[in-house]
Amino acid sequence: MSSPPAAPSRTTAPRRRPAWAGRNYTLLTGAAVITNLGSHGALIASAFAVLEAGGSGGDVGLVAAARTLPLVLFLLIGGALADRLPRHRVMVAANALNCVSQAAFAVLVLTGHPQLWQMMLLTAVCGTGQAFFNPAAEGMLLSSVSGEHANRAFALFRMAMNGAGIGGAALGGAMIAAIGPGWVLAVDAAAFALAGALRAFLDVSHVADRAPGGGLLADLREGWVEFRTRPWLWSIVLQFSVVVAVVGAAEAVYGPLVARDQLGGAAPWGLALGFFGIGTIAGAVLMMAWKPRRLLLVGTLCVFPLALPSAGLAVPLPVWGLCAVMFVSGTAIEVFGVNWMTTMHQEIPEDKFSRVSAYDWFGSVSMLPLATAVAGPVESVFGRTWALWGCAALVVLGTAAVLFVPDVRRMTRKPAPPKASSVPAPAASAPESAAQTPTGVTPG
């Protein structure tokens, strides 16, 4: 009697990613890594392009301001469009605009002597692309994960982005020294093209069709109502309008001057900034495992350490001490960032993600250009040391004030709703959001 045929063996292919990291989340993370690798090097390259063209430090500042101003001006419009149109299309269009502007910048640098106005114009175009990209990306990321996995997903996304930013800055600096800034700008243009191609494959079938609204102004008003009726939201954005401004002035203006005059040059300051980046990765790793119950209370307490770098520069601390406080502040801001993103994901309706995100971005960065512009005059009047102590005091006072808002102290993490399956299908995945904290601008 012959033996029955053996049952076919069932082999399961090894899973290469976590169960909660669906298609959209994976595409968004991969595209963000690519653009961060290119853009962080390009920021350095644009400064050296200005200097190699005969520009001064003031000209470098003008080019940097040309990027920031359109970002502030167009953020709200970008948020309204991203909630009205398919978000992935807004992201791809913004990436295409960034690709064209950076490619043109690269051609100018590689083929001759670019004029200051040309560099400012192209940088402004790039900033305009970011204004439309950032709210759409924030909304898309928020809707790419479920509430149950949001904390871990946002932490991993931020860790990938921050790691790519550190690597991109280091690689960009080495490439500038070896082959010049023009080629770094060309690489950035290629990175935008590749990232845009990846984002074109995002699946938005799970997002419900939005009912026709009353126009762009009506959308902006609806987003404003959503924003102003949540005290925890507008109070923290108001706090960060001050925090981002003074931290930006300290790190962009006073930090390099202290390094030049008292720490031995640019290398120690670059090392300190590197430790800040390492701290952000450490904070993201921490938040992969830690899920604090009081989201905003823990996050707000972690904003206090952002006063440490300004205080350290005011002393000034030796290089090792400055690296230590930069590491601590980097870790702390990541804890805030993940808790902030988790709160937004939990509290904001999916169809308003991008508009609320735009008000968040707008409020957080609106004072940064003014702060960097007046940093020099403030130093002339009060002295650099007192200016830095003032920066540290404003961070502490603004953060302490937010703790008086009851919603900030009481906001708690909501339990995940029961689900039939722990692995949602990509077409039914929950709302997405971007991983940018209000302390910086994520390259598209």
Structural features, described:
Helices cover 73% and strands 0% of the residues. It is built from 16 helices and no strands. The chain is globular, with a radius of gyration of 22 Å. By secondary structure, it is mainly α. Mean pLDDT is 82; it is low at 1-13 and 420-443.
Short description:
This protein is an all-alpha fold and 444 residues long. It has 16 helices and no strands.
Rg over CA atoms, rounded to whole Å, is 22 Å
Main sheet characteristics: none
The number of E-state strands comes to: 0
DSSP strand content: under 5%
What structural class results from the helix and strand content? mainly alpha
Kindly state the percentage of residues in helix. Answer: over 70%
The gross shape turns out to be: globular
Spans of at least 5 consecutive residues whose pLDDT stays below 50 are 1-13, 420-443
Number of discrete helical segments = 16
In whole angstroms, the N-to-C terminal distance is: 68 Å
Order of helices and strands: HHHHHHHHHHHHHHHH
- Mean pLDDT across all amino acids: 82
Highlighted features:
444 residues; mainly alpha; disordered C terminus
SSE layout and pairings?
Blueprint: H1 23-52, H2 57-84, H3 87-111, H4 116-142, H5 150-179, H6 181-199, H7 216-228, H8 231-263, H9 266-289, H10 295-301, H11 308-314, H12 319-347, H13 353-365, H14 368-382, H15 384-402, H16 406-410
